[in-house]
Specification:
By secondary structure, the chain is mostly helical. The chain is built from 15 helices and no strands. The N and C termini lie far apart (61 Å).
Amino acid sequence: MSVRKFTDSLYELYAGRGLSLIESLEIIAGRTGERQNPVKRAAQEILSSLSDGSLFSNALKSCISLNFDRTYITFIAFSERSGDLKDTISFLHERCRRRQENFLKLLEAMIYPAFVVALSVAACIFLFISGNDFVGKGLHEQNFFDAAQKIKLIKALSWLFIFCVIIFFILKKNMGENKLYEAFLATGFLINAGVNVASAVGLGMLVLGEDSKFGRAFSQAREKLEFGMNLETAFSSLVEGKGRRMKEAFYYAQKAGGKADVFEKMALWINACDEKKRNMCLRLIEPLFVAATGIFLLILMVNILMPVMNDINLF
């Protein structure tokens, strides 16, 4: 969140108003009416590093107040070599905005499950603490809500909790940041900025991570491009590994324009596929949790409340 605020401020002042980098950082570091926060401290630390002769990328790397990821620093380092810092700041601004939007979508999708879990936990706590007084008072002090019943109650709540955790990871996977989309988008941006295709693919690999499955595919593609192979051959392992639809999308993207267009169109295609998954998740989450709540209540009825009521009827 703080990195995004820093990037938003830098984008507004440096790319938007056309101030110099030093002037922009001085304004961020010295804004009045704001308490000392990580963004202000980071701007002060970066200014101090720049005044000592450090490059902007090295200043970000040594910044203690904010944790700039490797992709962020790498893109800044690239812009220092190419002299295109404003466009890079604009790109990073959009990247931070997309990540924030994905986080908010995930948070919004979890509101209903969180409400269901909170309500279930409240009901279980009520039964756990007050069960004996509620159903057994005045009936020869019989302990109707005994340890065995409490264990069943905990098991029922555990089932609902596990279900919620599974749904959370499914939502996170389908609604969170898609690094393959970010890698294709970043590679297209770099090619448009004048970086050769092989180097752009190598930098795009940093978004994915060198040790990840897709990161290794980008690394192999970079090596093949350096040996003069075409894009389709270089990315054959990645495209074929993702299935026929991606293979077709990559083929048509190549027919539509230049090399930068291939990566940008692939990013748009991946994003469109992600949107379909997100919409499907949002449509399914409510009925899934209605069903889960029904199962949870059924477990309570069958294993806890019905035996208790049968015991009461014996008196």
